[in-house]
Amino acid sequence: MMNLVTFLTASICCLFGGVIWWRHPHHPSNQALCGLNFCLAAWAVSNWFSLQVPGVNQRFIWVKIVMAVTILIPWCFLRFALYFPHIETAWRQHLRRYLTIFWAWSMALAALSFTPFIFRSYTTAAGVPHLEPGVGIVAYGLTFLGGCGVGALLLLQAYRKYRGLVRLQSAYILLGLSLTVLTGFTSNFILVTLFQHFEYVALGPLSALFLVVTTGYAILRFRLMDIRWAVIQTAAPIAALAILVIGYSWVWSELTSSTQQLALQRLMLALGMITTSLLFPVLTQVFRQTGKYIFHHHLFEPELAYQLLAELTTRPFSTTSLSYQLSQCLCSLLNVSWCGVLLYPVGKEHRSTEQLTAAWLAEGKQPLVVYDELLEGELKQLLQEQQIMVAVPLQVPHQLIGWIGIGAKHSGNAFSVAELTFCQVIAPQIAFAAQHAHRYGKAQQFADRLKKEVQLATTELKKANTQLAQLDRLKDEFVSIASHELRTPMTAIRSYLWLCLHRSPLKLPTVIKHNLEVAYTATDRLLLLVKDLLTVSQLEAGKVLFQPQPVRISQILNQVVEEQRCLAQQKNVELQVIIQGEEYSVEGDALKIGEIFQNLISNAVKFSPLGKKVTMLAQFQQTAVEVKIIDQGQGITAQDQRQLFQKFGVIEHSYRKSAEQGTGLGLYIAQAFAKLHQGTIAVDSHLGTGTTFIFRLPKIVKQIKRIEEKQTHEYAFAH
Amino acid sequence: MSTLLLIEDDPLLGPLYCELLGEAGYTVTHVYRTDDIKRTLKKQRYSLVLLDVMLPEQSGLELLEDQELWQGQKVVILTNLDQEQVVRRALALGAVGYLIKSEHTPETFIQAVQKFSCITPPFSVG
Predict the structure, then answer these.
(1) CA A288, A294, A299, A304 torsion: positive or negative?
(2) A34-55 CB burial, b ≥16 within 10 A, e <16
(3) How far apart, in whole angstroms, are the C-alpha atoms of residue A141 and residue A318?
(4) Residue predicted with more confidence, A56 or B49
(5) Among A57, A344, A472, A605, which one has the highest count of C-beta atoms within 10 angstroms of its own C-beta?
(6) Which stretch of A282-291, A641-650, B14-23 has the lowest confidence by average pLDDT?
(7) pLDDT category of residue A718 using cuts at 50, 70 and 90
């Protein structure tokens, strides 16, 4: 058994030393640890020989080999402690320089081990071996203890200074070393040299297993397996199974002792199996949860983490808000001291991040930068300066848009595989969320700016509107007053001209009378023009009063005809009114309808040749009343008809060139008034055969209201 | 003999209307200042009042609003403001009719006044 354990220890040490060497052959700490393992293997083998070989002299030689091999252990350990981790302090640098002297001293002691300087003699008395220490044994012991002690102190410093993996590894190595030194040095040195007890010498090399196992675990564990998690996962079902088996056995034994009935026993057996099957998963879960609670309060839960991150990244955040929320979430999920999310574009104040990006690019653009995994270099130094344990580059296709920096864990532990996988997996998701947030922020900014501009424009528009309303009012007042002020003197001129023409006590010479008549006509036209302009102004401002009530068309028509009769008589034009159909009342504004008739009839009279007839034909139809004003004038060309209802429509041929000229606004106004009644005025005329104007008024005028809005007066020509 | 109060401030039209109405047989009192108008109206009742709208101190419509001033006298608006708002307002305030100055020759003006002298209900002569 002892043989097996010894050679197993030696094999493990050799294997482990080889693996460490293979991982980083040029790293001083790996070299030192590899050397340490080979020394331990050599110790185990030489120790075995010192106990097994026959003959005192041979054993004494093997004891000397043991001493020569083991004195190299403190040097290896010290070298390892000085280079793991790589801490640059003044006294560490001094120690590294003295490491060569220590090496020489250790080699000298190894050489002296073969002289009586360490052990003078090896004797056996009644089967009990006895070693006589030489003068150098104290120096040997102090060198061993001193080297290991300084190494332990260096590791302790690393443990206190570092976070993460270094801290964890330092702790494991310290633990292994303590156990190794405690057992190995006690059993193989103190007991042998001071108390001459050789019974425990064989156990000495086994103590190396403590160091090998803890160091190996500390080095290899990272990114291979989370031991605690594995323990919880495997221990829970085992414990559940054990309890069930015990319970089942106890119940079974109780049953078999209490009853002899086979059927009942079988029944109980079946029930027991079913109960066990049902209880097993429940108990496993209970143990698992309990284990989690006891060993790891803040165990990382990937499902929860992925769920939370997914929820977070789908919300519409601004860049700042997303950074804050992500930091909070990651801090809580990974149980770390801090977490920062920095999203581009960054300003000059983030120069260190730019350095980080440059170093990251130089070192091969890893999807995840883990401090503990990095070799010494600029990137590692940058991470150390900023106390970042894990840096996650946020990349969208062909672009780096930011970084997530994760600090050390509160527990000081390293990040587990699940945690690092989580960080790596969520990086693209966060990158896209960040990109969306950036775009969302831009859109938000644009929306805000737009809103402000709209508000500004609205304010300016309101202001302009107020000014316009004021201007409109001023214009109305101006038009009103101007119209009044123009009319008053013109009325005086016309009245006095009339008096000159009609009430002159003297007989006027023909020329003077003619001139006065021209002046009178011109003044008359001018007054009419002012009146029409005022009406057009009101129409276009939408300020014409429209007050419909039931009216009788024939009454209005007759009244207007009577008013025009005087003018007609002057031209010897006959006026005839014909009413067809049964008259009914229509909804309309009597004043406006009166003006329409007045306009149409006066035009007809004006443009009728002497001695002709103007007929007013009112036809009361089922849905509308049509009033036709038919004259026997020279007619209007088709081309002129199109412009007839336009403001100042230029008519080339007939109407406008007549001796009786109008203002050019009368028909436009009449058409507008007809529109107010939802009616129309159409014209039917042929050159040489006269003209018929048709005013059509619907029987029921719907939606009668005051016209508030400004109308566009593009009256379609109606045939 | 019909008595007629002419409230007209225009220096050209006022004397003209006075002359025309005088020739037509009316006894015309011509005023246009607010004080004179009020004093005259208190002193005497007229068979017809011709009231201008655009007056120097107080507009004809403002004067019309004072019901006590007129005491049921027959008022006809005599103006060159033919905006419908003005006309309708005047009629609403109790005027029996209105005359647009620019639409009348001296002859038709006298005819219209004669009509208003005889007719009581509100009626427009345009």
Answers:
(1) positive
(2) bbbbbbbbbbbbbbbbbbeeee
(3) 67
(4) B49
(5) A605
(6) A641-650
(7) very low
- How distant is the Cα of B84 from the closest Cα of chain A, in angstroms? 7
Inform me whether the C-beta atom of residue A499 falls under 8 Å from chain B C-beta atoms: yes
Query: In this complex, do B82 and A496 lie within 8 Å of one another by their Cβ atoms?
Result: no
Q: Do B13 and A488 touch (CB under 8 A)?
A: yes
Residue A610 near residue A573 (C-beta atoms within 8 A): yes
Chain A residues whose CB is inside 8 A of the B103 CB are: 527, 531
Residue A467: pLDDT over 90: yes
Report the pLDDT value the prediction gives residue A570, as an integer from 0 to 100: 85
Contact present, A288 and A303 (Cβ < 8 Å): no
Mean pLDDT of chain B: 86
Examine the pLDDT at A703 and tell me if it is beyond 70: no
Compute how many other C-beta atoms are within 10 angstroms of the C-beta atom of residue A627: 27
Parallel/antiparallel/unpaired status of strands B97-100 and B75-79: parallel
Q: Which position has the higher pLDDT, A173 or B52?
A: B52
The residue among B18, B86, B102, B108 with the most chain A CBs within 10 A of its CB, best to mutate, is B102
Task: Locate A150 and state its tokens.
Answer: 């300084």
Burial of B96 per CB tally in 10 Å (0-12, 13-18, 19+): buried
pLDDT digits 0-9 by tens, A160-208: 877 666 777 778 878 887 888 778 888 887 887 778 777 777 777 778 7
The reported pTM is 0.45
DSSP character at residue B126? -
- What interface predicted TM-score (ipTM) does this complex get? 0.86
pLDDT given at position A298 = 58
Give which of A585, A586, A594 is closest to A556, Cα–Cα. Answer: A594
Q: Which single residue is written with the structure tokens 């109060």?
A: B5
C-alpha closest to that of A235 among A277, A304, A275, A289: A289
Q: Are A202 and A51 in contact (CB under 8 A)?
A: yes
Q: Contacts of residue B105 in chain A, CB cutoff 8 Å? A: 494-495, 498
Separation of alpha carbons A119 and A65, rounded Å: 12
Sign of CA dihedral A180, A184, A187, A189: negative
Read off the pLDDT of residues A619-639 as tens digits, 9 standing for 90 and up.
998 889 999 999 988 888 888
Give the pair of three-digit tokens for residue A569.
Answer: 């008589």
